[in-house]
Specification:
Elements lengths: L2 E6 L14 H9 L9 E5 L2 E3 L5 H7 L9 E3 L29 E5 L1 H12 L13 E5 L6 E3 L4 E7 L12 E7 L2 E6 L7 H10 L5 E5 L15 H13 L7 E5 L9 H8 L5 E2 L5 E3 L1
Parallel strand pairs: 3-4, 4-5, 5-6, 10-11, 11-12, 12-13
Antiparallel strand pairs: 1-2, 1-14, 2-3, 7-8, 8-9, 9-10
The structure holds zinc ion (3 copies).
Length: about 290
């Protein structure tokens, strides 16, 4: 049995969104609890996480993450709500005590790794020497698996349908095995691209857990993110492929206040379809 923890469940602006006075944000201020959402990130275990956004520090304290034990960090794409590399600067001598053998592997597409180089290039102490920071950047190729033997995990990066910065460079989402359990975390994607559907069909994954994008809440959101009918269409097609069955735990995550739905309203809308709603701190055994 594997476990995952939702460290954040919001889209870029968070909920309540800073400066915002909309109904969802006002309800969140009033009711607190599950309505308060930090930017999306996931803990797969002590050593493995997905995404590292602007709320990483708050998540560190709130969920006692102990990042000194982090070994593998997978980044879905180079958007500021998922990838803020500044904090990695503090892995070097004088800012923290990090053992020389304690290397943090950073996995991401070209854009993610480019962002890392861009940030560190300005540092006087860098000189292209990742060892100083105990970092190891690794470029992920779509559909090419990465095996983490030490964690008994296997990762498949899939192409997302999401805002693209560079032609041909797609944001990624992840299918992974942890022990004998299989999961898919697919936020920051619209209804999947054809190459991704084809890959899912070929691999015949059987998921114990699926978490998909639902940025637009209960509205029928446009491509690039998912919500409304697109969430349901994705679930139906995964069922048709045999990737999702009655024994699959199915969740949605990455919510924007612009989706016009509180946590309770999301549950009311999606629970009848067998879809659960993520919130900050939720742990799921799968
Ligand atoms: Zn996002
Ligand atoms: Zn708002
Ligand atoms: Zn994004």
């Amino acid at each position: 049995m594997a476990q995952i923890q939702i460290l954040g469940s919001a889209a870029a602006e968070g909920i309540p969104a800073i400066f915002c006075n909309c109904r969802v944000c006002c309800e969140a201020w009033k009711n607190g609890g599950k309505e308060i959402r930090m930017r999306t990130a996931y803990k797969l275990n002590e050593g493995v996480r997905i995404d590292f956004g602007p709320d990483s520090m708050a998540q560190e304290y709130k969920f006692q993450l102990h990042s000194e034990n982090l070994k593998h960090l997978f980044i879905s794409h180079n958007h500021e709500d998922h990838w803020v590399c500044d904090m990695l600067n503090y892995r070097r001598k004088g800012f923290s005590v990090v053992d020389e053998q304690n290397i943090l592997n950073i996995y991401g597409n070209q854009g993610v790794i480019r962002q890392l180089y861009k940030y560190f290039w300005d540092k006087l102490t860098f000189n292209g020497d990742w060892k100083k920071f105990r970092l190891n950047p690794i470029v992920l190729e779509a559909f090419t698996p990465v095996l983490l033997e030490d964690e008994d995990m296997e990762f498949y990066p899939l192409n997302a349908d999401h805002m693209i910065g560079v032609p041909g460079e797609y944001p990624q989402f992840f299918v992974f095995r942890h022990g004998s359990s299989w999961a898919m975390i697919a936020n920051d994607t619209g209804y999947f691209r054809d190459d991704t559907w084809q890959f899912l069909e070929e691999k015949k994954f059987k998921f114990d857990l699926v978490i998909t994008d639902c940025t637009g809440g209960i509205r029928d959101g446009e491509r690039g993110h998912m919500s409304g009918k697109w969430v349901l269409m994705t679930k139906e097609r995964l069922e048709k492929l045999g990737c999702v069955s009655d024994s699959t735990q199915y969740y949605i995550n990455h919510f924007s206040h612009n989706g016009h739905a509180t946590h309770a309203e999301l549950e009311e809308h999606y629970n009848p379809y067998g879809i659960q709603v993520c919130y900050d701190g939720l742990t799921i055994d799968y």
